Amino acid sequence: MLLALRLRDFVIVDTLDVDFGPGFTVLSGETGAGKSILLDALHMATCADTVSGFVRGGAAGVGITREFRSYRDGDFRLC
């Protein structure tokens, strides 16, 4: 289960820390609020795709940290 997602210099996002609770999570917002950007980050965080095309303008690189809970292995973090 994904517990948290931390983004740094991802597309137009300077920093974003999202904590996911148990159960169902809903993303809502106006057009241009960044819902699709967050979904792209979630996809890359879970599928290990390349992020080179998603570096925020002027930034040296992207930072994506994922925190998971495995019922077998406990909590862990991937950077």
Briefly say what this structure is.
The protein has one domain (2-78): Rossmann fold (3-Layer(aba) Sandwich), CATH 3.40.50.
Explain this structure:
A hairpin with a 3-residue loop joins strand 3 (63-70) and strand 4 (74-78). The protein has a 4-stranded antiparallel beta sheet, covered by helices on one side. It has a single domain, classed as P-loop containing nucleotide triphosphate hydrolases (Rossmann fold, 3-Layer(aba) Sandwich), CATH 3.40.50. The protein has 1 helix and 4 strands, in the order ββαββ. With 79 residues, the chain is α+β, with helices and mostly antiparallel strands.
Secondary-structure element series: EEHEE
Radius of gyration: 13 Å
- Biggest β-sheet, characterized? 4 strands, antiparallel
Question: Can you name the CATH architecture?
Answer: 3-Layer(aba) Sandwich
Strand % is: 35-45%
| Spatial strand order of the main sheet | 2-1-3-4
Summing up helix and strand content along with how strands pair, one would put the structural category as: alpha+beta
Question: Helices, strands, pairings?
Answer:
Blueprint: E1 2-10, E2 13-19, H1 35-47, E3 63-70, E4 74-78
Antiparallel strand pairs: 1-2, 1-3, 3-4
Keywords:
79 residues; four-stranded antiparallel beta sheet; 4 strands
